[in-house]
Design brief:
By secondary structure, this protein is an all-alpha fold. The chain has one domain. Helices cover 86% and strands 0% of the residues.
């Protein structure tokens, strides 16, 4: 049984390292940081993103950047939750 417990802990540590590596890669991405801290992005809500996509005159690059920002922001939140849960298990 001790061997099984050690294997489970090792798997959790391995999973934690993998998640932290992905998290750090995303949050240090320069393009993500630029989009995340742009005033336009901060002022937008997710409902507005849907409206933005429907406007034909909207700048396509802006649409792409906002979508990129929202997708990565959602992934960051998901990773934070998973990392938090794994850290709670290991203590």
């Amino acid at each position: 049984t001790t061997k099984i417990i050690l294997m489970i802990r090792q798997q959790r540590r391995s999973e934690l390292r993998k998640l932290e590596k992905e998290y750090n890669r995303i949050v240090t991405n320069k393009q993500f940081q630029r989009v995340l801290h742009s005033r336009d992005f901060e002022n937008m809500k997710s409902e507005e993103l849907g409206l933005l996509k429907n406007k034909e005159h909207t700048n396509r690059q802006l649409q792409t950047e906002f979508t990129f920002g929202y997708v990565l922001l959602a992934r960051v939140k998901e990773l934070e939750n998973k990392i938090s849960k794994l850290k709670n298990y290991s203590t």
